[in-house]
Amino acid sequence: MICAVVDAYGIARYLPETLRRYGVEPVHVRSQSPDIHLAYRPEDFGTDIEHLGDPAATARALRDLGVDVVIAGAESGVLLADALSAALGTRGNGMTRPTVRRDKYLMAEAVAAAGLATAHTLRTDDPERAVAWARGLGLRPVVLKPVASAGTDRVFFCDTDDEIRRAHALIMSGHDRYRSPDTAVLVQECLVGAEHFVNTVSVDGVHRTVEVWRYNKRPAPGGRSINDFDQPLPPGSPAYEALSAYTAQVLDALEVRNGAAHTEVMLTEAGPVLVESAARPGGAQLPHVVRACLGTDQLDCLAQSIAHPQRVLDGTLRTSRIERYLRYVNLITPRDGVVPDHDGWAPVRALESYTDMVLTIPSGDPAPETVDLVTSAGYVYLTSSDPARIEKDYLRLRALESTGLYETHAADRPGTAAEGVPR
Predict the structure, then answer these.
(1) How far is CA 353 from CA 255, 288, 290, 404, in A?
(2) Which of 49, 174, 329, 361 is the most buried (most CB within 10 A)?
(3) CATH code linked to domain 120-189
């Protein structure tokens, strides 16, 4: 069996080894606008096809290779993967309105049309219309963000009319993570509750929840919000079950029938409400760490859904269970600095629950003040059989960051036993 992966960037760089584990040979398709911020390992693919803008031509190349299935590895590959699947006649997603899986305004419309709870949403290129809309609904704060970007790219929380105008101007003057100009801004009701993400795999419209995680966020400069840390929910808990059931309905509304999906949902007092959904694997994780703690991971389940689709259809696919506690902690630079070298990270590696770390900004490079995921230097996994140990080490990590971890000179960095820093 041969699987084409469109844009194997970020977490999808681990797909080749995962697919081969189940006897599936991967080939790579590069879209015209991949997310250049994400890591990529082209050497893991025997074949790499550059898409030049003609889906029919790319589909012919894949047909000549005997490709059996096409999946999106990253957000930039979602629409192209859908188009190629349709052209090849392989398992894919519904093509009635494929743009609902990328355009967040159309997404909210489709989910609302299915009778599901969504946030009040406006798309506009006019800042004064955004102000009037928020006033008319009595909404404060409101969230402004690009219509089709990813991560926390230019997500603003605005309390005043002037903040709305400034955020609107900042978004409209830029480009999204895929280098496309922003021609409109999404304005949304600010939902109150606990935000989660639900990672799933699907075969022929049958959805299986692999894992549910809760985001813990904190305010960032300029009216933004950044991810602080994430933790998985125990399967079978009321929140896990409610979020899973709602997400399956969202996927149906968006015609997601096959492959992986990553859906962000706010659990409010009234129940789950969609933030956004992506028809690709959830990003920024180390699959081997997740698998060691939860017994599986989304990429492994995705590979199984391709090699052994019956496991999804009959419910024998193994999904997550908490075998060891873990916390995914985003690195947060409190002010401009420098990413530490190997020795500079020693105090972090010395944490008892430290398990692994990924740097998204290389050691020695400038570390800007963290205002979103792009300006975070990376992330750390803390794992333990004792959740109290993880909390203690998390607080220690934040203390290290606030007392000089990212300072330019090694002498200015905190040691493993820095005075005044709790362990």
Answers:
(1) 41, 16, 14, 21
(2) 329
(3) 3.30.1490.20
Map tokens 């997400």 to a residue.
Answer: 247
More confident residue, 360 or 154: 360
Neighbours of 81 (CB within 10 A): 29
Contact partners, residue 279, CB within 8 Å, separation at least 6: 72, 78, 82, 93, 101, 254, 256, 259, 260, 261
In terms of CATH architecture, what is 2-90?
A: 3-Layer(aba) Sandwich (3.40)
Q: Give the tens place of pLDDT for each residue, 1-33.
A: 999 999 999 999 999 999 999 999 999 999 998
The class (CATH top level) of 325-423 is alpha beta
Residue pLDDT, tens place only, 80-97? 999 999 999 999 999 999
- Pick 192-323's CATH classification: 1.10.1660.10, 2.60.120.40, 3.90.930.1, 3.30.470.20: 3.30.470.20
Q: Are strands 206-220 and 48-50 parallel, antiparallel or unpaired?
A: unpaired
Residue with tokens 């794992």: 383
Q: Are strands 121-124 and 185-189 parallel, antiparallel or unpaired?
A: antiparallel
Contact 263, 247 (CB under 8 A): yes
Say how far apart CA 286 and CA 298 lie, in whole Å. 11
Q: How far apart are CA 360 and CA 376, in angstroms?
A: 7
Distance (Å, rounded) from C-alpha 362 to C-alpha 391?
Answer: 27
Q: How many CA atoms lie within 13 A of 180 on its CB side?
A: 15
- Nearest CA among 39, 50, 35, 32 for reference residue 15: 39
Give the residue, 181 or 249, on which the prediction is more confident: 249
Domain coordinates of the chain in residue numbers? 2-90, 120-189, 192-323, 325-423
